[in-house]
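Problem: given the chain below (304 residues), write out its structure.
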Amino acid sequence: MIPEGEDRFMNAPSANAGSMNIVACVKWAELRPEIDPLHGSVEIRPRSSGISSSDFAAVESALRIAEAWAQAGTPSSVTVLCAATADAEESLYEFFAAGVSRVVRLDLAEQRSSAEVAELLAAELRPLALDAQLVICGDVSADRGSGSVPAFLAHELGSAQALGLIELKPTQPRHLEATRRLDGGRRERLIVTTPAVVSVEGSVADLRRSSLAATLDAKNKTIEVRSSQPIAAAEIYRLRPWRPRSRVLPPPVGEDALSRIVELTGAQTHSSASRTLVLDPEQAAEAVLTQLVAWGYLEQTPPA
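Solution.
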């Protein structure tokens, strides 16, 4: 392991001025989650966690593009940036065996929103702004499946985006031809120029099988570890109807059960009938507050 804070991306050995670094962003997630039937929580088990097929397709696409651009005269390398816990490290050596130059693990122990994950990834990618002109992600993650992280990441980096691709192939250096799935069985063909963030489906490519020599040599490589930076707590918006808090009422008083039930239900008390009021905004607000006081949800009458 490389200690935190050392050998940041910006301190990595730089290639020649015309080289490119392609970054594939992957996520370590629960592939077969189980839902607790009692309280509905997701049980995370390290043995059933892994990399999704779309993330494997992103890494393989990055390798193919790097090879094609290298043959065209633009030296290219591939870096894998993985948001995961320490449980993922044993599986990350597979990317070294496949031909990836660097593997960086962003230590992400707790669940975060898509916007927060994109912000953390962008913080690691910004030092690579001169070289990392292409970022490839899987279209959806195995745990949440929203597919929104690549879009948020493109926004954070200020790059073009092409999401949900079913075909991606390089042409000349820094240019790609892509096909995106549309509704109704239609397709959209795109010409993508770097800098860009793209996401691919799992059917685009399968990660290549590594040789035994490459697999053994991968164990000698070093996975760089970065700690996730704390993010300021965002404002939490209410997504359900507002319900007033419960009130504490005195117990009913009566000599027998019937009288106590009558007092508790208010069956023999006078109840105010519903009414329709047409008021100005200020008067309507005052009427609402007055009624809340009458019902006991407010302790005192609001000032006039």
